[in-house]
Amino acid sequence: MMAEILFLVHRAPWPPDRGDRIRSWHMFEALAKLAPVHVAALADNAADAAIAREKMAPLCKTLAVEVREVSRPVALAGAVLRGEPVSNRLFRNAALAEHVGALLALRTVTHIVAFSGQMAQYLPADFAGRVLMDFVDVDSAKFATYAEQDKRQPLNWVHAREARKLGAFEAQVARTVDASLFVSEAEAALFRRQSGLGTDTVHAVENGIDTGRFDPALALDEAGEGEGPLAVFTGQMDYRPNIDAVQWFVAEVLPIVRKAHPAARFAIVGRAPADEVRALAALPGVSVTGEVPDVRPWLAAADAVVAPLLLARGVQNKLLEAMAMARPVVASAAAATGIDATPGEHLLVANDPEAMAAAVVRLFDEPAAAAQMGRAARERMIARYGWDARLAPLAGLLGLAA
User: Fold this and answer.
1) Handedness of CA 255, 259, 262, 268 (dihedral sign)
2) Which of 243, 301, 318, 379 is deepest in the core (most CB within 10 A)?
3) Residues 44 and 130 reside in one and the same domain
């Protein structure tokens, strides 16, 4: 019997324009080299679903993309009533479940790969083939951190509950699948401690970076026009850790930077900026771009790329992209965790406002040294983070010849 793979994805992989879709797209490409792939995915809206169907349909054995429509309040109410994680309710879709059931009933699928813990609810209990669960990050730990950081009620209760419920669900799933994957060894080790499982079933499969696409030698459109040194942050700007990061940088770090460089600018580059992010554009030196067709021109224009994340899990694609573009990076310790690079040589790491501001000012003041750090960063990305090498373990974990 020829192998066929079912790939369950919480967001359709195309376009690979945010961290989760970048990883899932490259994983899809890697799986498609091993066997025909059936993709069953969700999308946040009808436009995303249409774009994904147009691009991916010719590449898949079969493709189903359903739009998820459950609001957070409804998901919370349902989860509390049924004693389950809110995350699962948010990504529950009857049409997708029906499609998966009908596909598996044909008995042509020999392997299943589920991407993101929310998709574990679609895994059949009686499947005979190998099943991989790519959790990516330990999401339950993220909610535990939210609860520690925010003591306001009812948010604290909601986050603490989600940490408990999701943590129990993650461990239960990991005990039923053949292998559980995480984006870094730090995340894998954390999950092993939380679940009691070992290295035989819990593995790190790291993110990579397309250094051919993220190449400073390419001819790119200009971005970031204006006077004064430019710091850039990139990311999905309705995502709470990104929102908190730029708010903190603007309030605590940028004023110190502008004392040394009064013309210094800070560009927040990314799709779907929340209202509190848009409001930052009213402050001196701050611009909010919203969605851009290509993030690379903004990276190329940056005198420093900053990642002042207070909460970060796994490997930050935004840092891999900036470093591949040979840009000097200033990151918090949380953002730098999981990236195999040497602070002081490949990037700068700082946590408190004064240290982060000093690092940014140093890059502004010493362009030659900043450029050398950028070149070292790109060399590190080329040597360490090619996607083919990072995803090579999938073949062995699935028991399929590469």
Assistant:
1) negative
2) 318
3) yes
pLDDT of residue 402: 64
Residues of the chain with pLDDT under 50: none
What range does the domain containing 264 cover? 230-384
Number of domains the chain contains: 2
What is the per-residue DSSP string for 242-298? HHHHHHHIIIIIHHHHHHH-TT-EEEEE-SS--HHHHGGGGSTTEEEEES-S-SHHH
**Residue showing tokens 């891999």:** 320
Q: Is residue 213 part of a domain?
A: no
Q: Among all chains, which residue has been given the structure tokens 């605590």?
A: 252
Q: Kindly report the number of other CB atoms within 10 A of residue 164's CB atom.
A: 15
What torsion do the CA atoms of 41, 43, 46, 50 make, to the nearest 10 degrees? -50
Rg (CA), the chain: 21
Q: Per this entry, what is the length of the chain?
A: 402
* Distance, CA of 172 to CA of 166 (rounded, Å): 10
SS3 of the chain: helix, strand, coil, percent, to 5: 50, 15, 35
Instruction: Judge whether 221 lies within some domain.
Output: no
Q: With pLDDT > 70 as the criterion, what percentage of the chain qualifies?
A: 100
